[in-house]
Amino acid sequence: MTGSITSIRQARNTHEAEGDQSSHALPYALAATTLEHAETHIRFQDIGKTYSGEQGPVRALHGIDLVVRKGEIFGIIGRSGAGKSSLLRTINRLEQPSEGQVLIDGEDIGRYGTSELVALRRRIGMIFQHFNLLSAKTVRQNVELPLKVAGVPRQERQQKVASLLKLVGLENKHDAYPAQLSGGQKQRVGIARALVHDPDILLCDEATSALDPETTQAILALLRDINRSLGLTIVLITHEMEVIREICDRVVVLECGAIVEQGPVWRVFGDPHHDVTRTLLSPLQQTLSDDLKAHLLTQPLRQNDALLLELRLNGTNSREPDLGLLFSALGGQLTLVKSAIQRLQGRTVGHLLVSIRHSPHAQEELIKRARRIFDDVEVLGYVAAD
Amino acid sequence: MSLLIDRLWQGLLDTLLMVGVSSLIALIAGIPLAVFLVTSGKGGMFEAVRLNRLIGSIVNLFRSIPFLILMVALIPFTRLIVGTTYGVWAAVVPLAIAATPFFARIAEVSLREVDQGLIEAAQAMGCRRRHIVWHVLLPEALPGIISGFTITLVTMINSSAMAGAIGAGGLGDLAYRYGYQRFDFMVMLIVIIGLVLLVTLIQLGGDKLAKAMNHRT
Ligand SMILES: Nc1ncnc2c1ncn2[C@@H]1O[C@H](COP(=O)(O)OP(=O)(O)OP(=O)(O)O)[C@@H](O)[C@H]1O
Ligand SMILES: [Mg+2]
């Protein structure tokens, strides 16, 4: 997991050479915190969406109040059918809300007529899970199309297309047809096409879901790079929690058409409050291994049975898992059973499982001492000495 | 003998003319018709449900009348348009009227197969409806439309032979007069071989073109 973060950083570095060094040089955490004061870009006001389905109306969204800030990467997660796509698609009015308003730069886009809507959509790029490239057009023609329909002169179009294909790393594929490209290359074309009007918002609906892990990393690196260098606001949907963890600043969790949780990624991922969030995150969360679970006792049978503790860091107090401190606080024979500590946006979050044997302290005292170092401490049980 | 060859040649030209002109009309009228049928349904880009249903029924009506009956029924209309009910140009009228809905329905199928996601992507990038028709629907459906047009051409050769039998000229007329009325097996055979060659040629050409236009794989 740290490996993948490094890889995305490295991939970014290769792009950074030509970019604005000062903004790129910002450490991740600093960049994330500066955004907290960024202005509102997209505001959802009490959004509701009801579809008329075959078996009566389907309420896909209700009471959504949400703000996306300028320049941030905002993630939307939730189970299948939770309403993620419906919400995202209200931003460029591919879906018209049944209730409420979407404000972009303070303007109610629901009031736009056709021409204003077309102009708005040119300021919002969108990429899709299945790329949605035109099979009858070459890479160049695909990227060029949004400019062509906007009446941009040929010369200008060609320059723009060439520079974008360079940006996404497809300089030598101008005349290929989409069918001749790999999934990752297709998505790069999709990104180039989405950026061709220099939009200030990019919407991604499961943009990496059809890609293998390595390609996903490369595409995420590209998105992060674009976000930084162009100052683009990105709203993305994904069911891959690693994607959120690696590139999002903030995240919202939807369930049955409503918001159940939202906040900075370190907060939501480090200390999920809602069951839905926990379930979604479970692939990332390392729990007790089965063999340990089977041997776990609720009460100690013998004097030297080990106490199993879960020590959590939720990032709020900027604590570090200081093992030396922990050892001197708890004493006895301290063993690390499992570690799931990670750094998210410059904050250390996650948990440690440790077992303690022969400690000079009583259990309550142990917990009290551990609480001084960790945000939360829980007794999981006892493991019998062999 | 040379008279026969002249007649055969003339017959071939007449057939090509009838089929060519009526299919061209079908192409020009059928594509907009197909686009309309696809885009004017419920939830479509140019939603007009009632008109869609009306046009759809008219298309079905013409599709369900056998060509021979349609031809006879259209005689007054044909006379009105071309001034005669005899000859190549008189046959073009019922042929075009039969070919247009036939081709429109086939083209409609190809247009419907265009991925909804592509239309959405086009909307998201700021395409207006006419752009979507021109840059997305038609190019994406083109291979299917070409195949459909090939089928239409072959079907029109078939129908034109029928028209020939009631005095429109062309290969059908020859086969009928020489083969049926005079039992000249030779002429019949030549006509059959000629038709087989013509159909094969059209089919091969159409397949090749459709393949060249298909970049999906
Ligand atoms: N066009 C539509 N007509 C009727 N119902 C719809 C339509 N689009 C979505 N829905 C319903 O609205 C609800 C939310 O759908 P939505 O596509 O927003 O979910 P999602 O969170 O994106 O799911 P997934 O992760 O599967 O993409 C679902 O119950 C879905 O069946
Ligand atoms: Mg979805």
UniProtKB/TrEMBL annotation, chain A:
Transmembrane feature ranges: none
Membrane topology: Peripheral membrane protein
Domain ABC transporter, residue spans: 42-281
CDD domains the UniProt entry points to: ABC_MetN_methionine_transporter
Stored PANTHER family: AMINO ACID IMPORT ATP-BINDING PROTEIN, METHIONINE IMPORT ATP-BINDING PROTEIN METN
Record keywords: Amino-acid transport, ATP-binding, Cell inner membrane, Cell membrane, Membrane, Nucleotide-binding, Translocase, Transport
Stated name of the protein: Methionine import ATP-binding protein MetN 2
Segments of this protein annotated with the region Disordered: 1-23
Cell membrane is among the record's keywords: yes
PROSITE patterns to which the protein is assigned, alphabetical: ABC_TRANSPORTER_1, ABC_TRANSPORTER_2
Segments of skewed composition (Polar residues): 1-11
Subcellular location: Cell inner membrane
Species in which this protein is naturally found: Pseudomonas asuensis
GO molecular function term, any single one: ATP binding
InterPro entries linked: AAA+_ATPase (IPR003593), ABC_transporter-like_ATP-bd (IPR003439), ABC_transporter-like_CS (IPR017871), ACT-like_dom_sf (IPR045865), MetN_ABC (IPR041701), MetN_ABC_transporter-like (IPR050086), NIL_domain (IPR018449), P-loop_NTPase (IPR027417)
Matching Pfam families: ABC_tran, NIL
Keyword Translocase carried by entry: yes
Organism taxonomic ancestry: Bacteria, Pseudomonadati, Pseudomonadota, Gammaproteobacteria, Pseudomonadales
Automatic annotation (TrEMBL), chain B:
InterPro entries associated with the record: AA_ABC_Transporter_Permease, MetI-like, MetI-like_sf
Keywords: Cell membrane, Membrane, Transmembrane, Transmembrane helix, Transport
Pfam families for this protein: BPD_transp_1
Transmembrane segments: 16-39, 60-82, 88-111, 132-157, 185-206
Subcellular location: Cell membrane
Ribonucleoprotein as UniProt keyword: no
Keyword Transport among record annotations: yes
Domain ABC transmembrane type-1 stretches: 12-203
Chief localization: membrane
Highest taxon of the lineage: Bacteria
Membrane topology type: Multi-pass membrane protein
NCBIfam families given in the database record: PRK10782.1
UniProt record similarity statement: Belongs to the binding-protein-dependent transport system permease family.
Protein name: D-methionine ABC transporter permease
Gene name of the encoded protein: metI-1
